[in-house]
């Protein structure tokens, strides 16, 4: 799932007086909107958007709270029960299906039609992510992300692997292709022996060629969908489908190959990486290569040091000649608990506008959803000396796959996460995923 880790930072920041109540007018007529987000890296840009919005709209005050991922969703879900939650909050497609099904967030169609909001300005596919099965719109896209390979250029140079080689990797589930070759060569034990050299001690590894970053659970956004997406396999049959396909041999063969990297010593055991931040391991030299999302670009490149030279490469080309990446996008939902839906909409509309998304673009943290703002973000990254083309090329080349959206996401995750963890920890074979898939599909019966 996207952004479940935010560089270990938990910050609370407010603009205005954080009152703990939903939007409403104060004695002086000021309309205060309570807004939540989880990503500390994006907080400064949205603080600026809030200040700009207040300057352009007399009588509005935006209170922003930023807290870490787990606490954030716990606050939102419990707030729906208590009636005390944000008026507007940054939402995720892993959670929004249940929110809209339970009537906890407001549809925006009437507002969009009334104000003639142009939905064609957003990157293709992002608007549809925020529609329910009946076509009702619940969010305006704010940003998007894809996956690429972060690596430490100092380690790849020491291994004699060029940037050009990393940009042309191939993968298949039989022998791993040149992707596995590179992973093996980048793995080094504590005696200085590489993973593809005689005498390599897989029980005594100094630097892993690849970091695991969890099992991927039900979605595998940064762990395995950039591999499975190159196959004739999809998790579901499209948005709001009523079945999953974890029982497919093509999926299970991919996961079996991925786990084989642990058995060979090229990737840490599941238990050894649990609770450890992948970015910190990359920065520290404990891992040479890590697939992850574009939202981590600023943090990774901002951590450059004498021993860490960050770089990014595209995902490997699969057996059918194409790359793949999950493309996810965020939007802002309006809570049904808000006391002033009209005021909340004005803020949501501004968040989805070019005015705000250009501010986000200039911050060079994520890729805004509006096409012109995306171009400005790419230029802003380039201005910092960061080549983000491995992320953007997936969109330009049409090799993205959309994050799976269905009902029962919490239940699907509750089934698939322990099932995948059992496989990646070596406690169960990949054939066990067939039984897990049966349990998942039973949810829809």
The biggest sheet, with number of strands, parallel, antiparallel or mixed sense and barrel status, is: 8 strands, mixed
CATH level-four homologous superfamily name of the largest domain: Periplasmic binding protein-like II
Q: Which CATH architecture of the largest domain is right?
A: 3-Layer(aba) Sandwich
- The secondary-structure class comes to alpha+beta
Question: Mean pLDDT across all residues, rounded?
Answer: 93
Q: How big is the Rg?
A: 22 Å
Number of domains: 2
Tell me what the structure shows.
There is one protein chain. This protein has two domains: about 180 residues, D-Maltodextrin-Binding Protein, domain 2 (3-Layer(aba) Sandwich); about 220 residues, D-Maltodextrin-Binding Protein, domain 2, CATH 3.40.190. It is built from 19 helices and 13 strands. Strands 1, 2, 3, 4, 5, 11, 12 and 13 form an eight-stranded mixed β-sheet that branches. A three-stranded antiparallel β-sheet has the order 9-6-10. Strands 7-8 form a two-stranded antiparallel sheet. A hairpin with a 5-residue loop joins strand 1 and strand 2. Helix 1 runs antiparallel to helix 15, helix 15 runs parallel beside helix 16 and helix 18 runs antiparallel to helix 19. The protein starts with about 25 loop residues before the first strand and ends with a helix. The N terminus is likely disordered.
Secondary structure elements and pairings:
Elements: E1 24-25, E2 31-37, H1 43-56, E3 60-66, H2 69-82, E4 88-91, H3 96-101, H4 109-114, H5 126-129, E5 141-145, E6 147-152, H6 153-158, H7 163-166, H8 177-186, E7 188-189, E8 205-207, H9 225-228, H10 249-264, H11 270-273, H12 278-284, E9 289-293, H13 297-301, E10 310-313, E11 325-334, H14 341-351, H15 354-363, E12 367-368, H16 371-383, H17 389-396, E13 400-402, H18 409-424, H19 432-442
Helix pairs in contact: 1-15, 15-16, 18-19
